[in-house]
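Task 17 of the worksheet. Students: predict the tertiary structure of the chain below and write it out as structure tokens. Keep your answer in the requested format; marks are given for formatting as well as content.
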Amino acid sequence: MIKFDNVFFKYNNSKNMTLADISFEVPRGSWLTILGENGSGKSTLMKLLYGQNLATKGKILFENKEYTKETYNDIRQKIAVVFQNPDNQFVGATVEEDIAFGLENKNLPREKMEQIICEVLDIVDMKDYRKFEPTSLSGGQKQRVAIASALALQPEVLILDEATSMLDPVARKSILGYIKKINREQKLTIISITHDAEESIYSDNIIILEKGIIVYNGSYNFLYNDINILSKYHLEIPFLERIKHELNAYLDIKTFEIEEDERSVVEKICKLI
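Model answer:
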């Protein structure tokens, strides 16, 4: 669906490339997480994905259509972004008005807009809050509204730009759960750009960026079978994976598998006690 083919990028005021020799593919309906420290090139890569900047060298393709000055506006209509701070995205006085704002440019009948608003609020469990002011909501609720606003545009790709970094662990887990449900049920392509490896738990594929180059590109299972890869690039190991590795080492037998979720791990621990 999306393909980067030997992409390089340099800002006009810079002598050096910010991104170098970037190549990867994102199949339709998959979830890709792009990990990296601050300064690794994640934000620049996001701008290229969204068409905000164009490659200095190489090709970026969306459904076999190359990003160019002539095509990027059409491509951007198929991509929605949820940013780190939802407060910066709110423009409506109420939740439903905020979602409606993005739909007004589509010239939809009011009845159709109402239908879409109800559907997306239902997906993120926020139907009871449609008349609320966005400023009165909790951080997790605000981010759910931001996701609903993005989904209302019916994108083919949803980009999460550090979208859970300001949330507490409970809210983060809830938001990621909603997004995984959407990814699974609607086959929506997800690209998560983050410094927090905890966000990678639902990923099909993971890329690690360091100083503008890809240093890892592979599956979730392969990465977390060797958690030293994360340490090597100064990324924190997700709590659940760290617990599995430590318990396996303590028991001196591989009792806990990469694919196991929290419930399965807790059940096994209870049986061992």
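Marker's comment: The chain is about 40% helix and 20% strand. Residues 238-273 form one domain.
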